[in-house]
Protein 1
Amino acid sequence: MSSENPGNTERQRNPAPVRKIVPLAVARGPHEYIPGNQEAPVQLTSMVDMLKWAQNWARSRSVWPLGYGLACCAIEMMAAAQAHYDLARFGSEVFRSSPRQADLMIVAGTVCVKMGPRLRLLWEQMPEPKWVLSMGQCANSGGEFYDSYYTVQGVDTIVPVDIYVPGCPPRPEQLIEGILKLREKILKQGLKLRDEEGNEW
Amino acid sequence: MSVNQQPDANPLGETSAEGYKSQEMFLNMGPQHPSTHGVLRLVLTLEGETIVDCTPVIGYLHRGMEKILENRTIMQGIRYTDNSDYLSPMLCEIAYAGTVEQVMGLEPPRRAQYMRLLVGEMQRIASHLVFVGTYLVDLGAFTPILWTFRDREGCLALFEALAGSRFTVNYLRVGGVLHDFPRNWLKECEAWLDRLEKNMADLETLITGNEIFEARTQGVGYIDSGQAIAYGLTGPMLRASGVNFDVRADRPYMAYREVPINVQVRQEGDCYARYKVRMQEIYESIRLCRLAIDRMPPGPICARVPIALRPKRGETYFAIENSRGEFGFYYISDGGEYPWRAKMRAPSFCNLSILPDLLRGHKMSDAVAIIGSTDIVLGCVDR
């Protein structure tokens, strides 16, 4: 809680062990799981592969979110963007207000029936490449308002979602972890992201 | 046509006195907007830059909370009130728990009352810090939001140590509170209050006396006291118009009966006055927190109530002073576990009703300053 730590002598005597990176599927616990660094090094065999990797590397390192905070999770999103849990160091330098200038739509908060068509409209206004991060349990699946007459049970009924961040509200560090996983997902993508029906390549 | 002819009657609109052809434009300050503090939609009728009329459209965050509360037991329902005013969840929980206690005729123990006072005032500080930060970011200043959110992190870390979650704490129960303070929590709280006072002094040097801020907020959005009472405003919006009404002082509840409050009132009624009232309330809350820490009585933290709580038949209204105004519940109990009706009197909903009247005649950029100064939270408006 208080940041004044009198001494790091404990750390100096027993340094934390270096974590070896394993893919998520075989990780045996949080000590072997580093978000954003799951995949084994890529094998770039052809020119196309190298171009693909370079393009996606650049895209993943500068994902600009659309400031689409709806409810309580918006406050945690704002807190993640402020100085304590800085989101800008991961490339999300600015939260764009206009969907035409944004890459990532972070749906933070409960989506109501009245808001649903607006959400879809905003998503359609975003230019490719675009990704959606569903933040909080209300956006993931309706959450605690599961029996409400006016909430959409999960934003993935309206837009295709790439990353789900659970929590109510998720801590800023959880949101940052979601963005790091998104980075990795972007790195794995091909040159084209979605075809006309919305299926991923 | 020659230059000496009169211009044709403008098919689009009237011709103003200077000869300019103008047309009223409908501008949608939509539900997705960085400055509307949530999903508020304002349909503005603009004549050039001047706002002629404004229609707020709400309901973009209506989750049916009051209906949901009818299908949850009281202990489950306390969690839902967190989501209504999501910037001050502790205070909303105090309202719901206090209402049920009033229906049952139950008085929480003194330690619980002082603990509620302490966390309530801490929550008020956190909420007003968000107000200051977001208000200034709407007006264009970026540094204050970084500073206020840093101070708020201290408060949220304390809440996490106490209740398990930064906000959406599920901390209040009917009859008291859930957990006692962890070891050294009170000392950490005092350390946070000391740091906060120092940081507030820094913040004041940045904002108060800033010419741009004063030019944008002084004289803008004037509400006179009769109008404020007529619209049912409460909270800092009312106190900035000269009306001395604070639920903690006029209808004291729980520990506020023993701890007197200095109600912060200003007479100017403009955006600057509302900002100053909230800043002064932060200082007042710091004083109350220190008082509560000094006077914390020993004893039990919760009265013994059954888990399957069945309040007896009856109805009651109980209100507390939220950071936005009077937050109350009108609770009708039919003797069962579930409430028959739990109506939330949400302060932001009533504070929003003055917005059309207030925005008329102002320019577009003043609209942002005025909406920010009302400090509405859409979770509270739409529930």
Protein 2
Amino acid sequence: MLGYLVRRLISAVLVLALVSIAVFALFTYGPRDPAESMCPESHCTAQRLESIRENLGLDRPFFTQYGEYMKGIVAGREINVGTKNPIECDVPCFGRSFKYGVNVWDYLKPRMPATFSVAIGGAVFFLVIGLSFGVFAARRRGTLADRGIVGVSLLINAIPYYLLALIAYLYLVSKFGLFPDSGYVPFTDNPGKWLYALLLPWLCLGLTYSTQYARFSRGSMIEALSDDYVRTARAKGLAQRTVVFRHALRVAIVPIVTIFGLDLATLLAGTIFTEQIFGVQGMGLANLQAINIGDLPIIEATVLIAAFFVVASNVIVDLLYSVLDPRVRLA
Amino acid sequence: MTSLSKTPDFSTASPSSGDEPFLVVDDLTVKFPTADGLVNAVTNLSYAVELGKTLGIVGESGSGKSVSSMAVLGLHDARTSRITGSIRVGGQEVVGLSEGRLQRLRGNEVAMIFQDALAALHPYYKVGGQLAEAYLAHHPKASKRDAHRRAVEMLDRVGIPQPDMRAKDYPHQFSGGMRQRVMIAMSLINDPKLLIADEPTTALDVTVQAQILDLLQDLQREFNSAIIMITHDLGVVAEMADDVMVMYGGRAVEQGPAKEILVRPEMPYTWGLLSSIPDVDADVDARLVPIPGNPPSLLNPPSGCAFHPRCPHVDKVPGNLCSTELPDLLPARSGPDHLKRCHLVDPSAVYQTEVLPEIAPDLVEEN
């Protein structure tokens, strides 16, 4: 178990290292020159461009730059900005925003609670809604209720998420005012308003994602319900409820854990549409704005953080598998 | 054929309590409506099993053996099946019984042992827990500790070494034979009066198979329970059964005392089953004769006798009787307990002159 964990963690770190090299290379050799985007167009001269380049260390070899960047993430570093004194950049240092003139981490960190609130709340919604409808439909396979659930889930699935969220916003917030237009309210400021403001984003995320979970858990559940051990459970004289939830669902839920881990990781990295439409100042919105204005350090950081969430969720899901299924041996 | 000539063990016999046998199945018909039509899984089946006795149900895949037994436990979904006729367990009618009443019956009065114990036990729960769960389902007042103690006791009873340790293992950590013992322990944990064993030894090798059958016989002697042994192995029937019912295409085609059916079979399908048993002790001249053709479609059963497309003796029956008219289940010549469904006028003569020399030449000389 410990050996497996160590090996799994080493490979996770390797994956992250490769991703970071790729991202760093993409930005270094990419079409956009970092120095140019820092250089105000009206005053930009060749000398000024050269001096910015020098200050940023862009004239140094690739791996020297990369090494310094990675060192900054794990140990912090000092950043040279123009002629002034170097600026302290604490762990984890993702560099300094070109546009906002602040350290990237200091810019992103306060935005995380908003994204986490949206993502985790939404995930709870879609998991609960999806599983409930999926299990319900599986138990009534072939009936009108089952076909209705599958049909409606396909219909909702066919609506692009941004359209659904936009319509919800336009009608439920702007027109009828059923939900507040307050954007994100930190939990620590006012838990009630936090909940009220997030309810609609959660519902939208929950509705869209739950369709896929409903169909997936329905299929998984139908398979489990036809398995021999379910027949055994019934033959033992167990109550219907026990058979469905303790015996069938226990097995049906295992494959769902995998896609849930990945979905949650992707959401934690930023819920761009939700944040844009409902005005939540989170990671997704920060990423979007950084792309629009070409703020490379912020984009780099958000991509790396997203990669971290995905890799971490994979490790957690793998470990969880051995807990969920005793037949899986971690060796 | 030595294993077949062995006398069934009658020492377990005891007079049944009450007026009728513990299990009475009367004119049972099970149909499944499907998109392709109505599947006639079981048609007009009648049999009875007394306490302490063993009934062997024999037939090939799709002959309705398992379907009819699952009906005894009320395991067929009312929405996807149509059941008519009567099944009485200890005098209580099972057909049409409410789900709640069925739950009290299942695992308590009637328990079932399934074929593939690895698939039939829950993969994610420890066996001790699974046994305790079966006990608690019918002893709601018992504590978890009592249920666990009872589980360990049952594991010990079926011959699992170090039962208190093994109770903490998962099904996949057991060998095939031990897993089947776990299955048996679970089915017996509530002292059921009727045990339905659905091909309990099919997935096991021969030595383990013998151990499991011995165990079942021991337990039957101890608890005086009735057993239905579903199998396609006539060797198992010869070993275990007091009575035999041979099923084909959802119907009983021959039934009666095991010894009688095995020694004087009167239905060509039973002959076919006997012919297709390999036997290491048999004369080298003895042939292993497979039954030609495929099991009948239950969606569109053959007209007349369901076995007629595969029956080598059709031409001995005058007219097209075999393909036009379903033979009734009638008493055989040897006695009223022996029922058979066949148009042949003198089946025992055909058996003696044509079938027996093929499958057991040594037995012919004795006669």
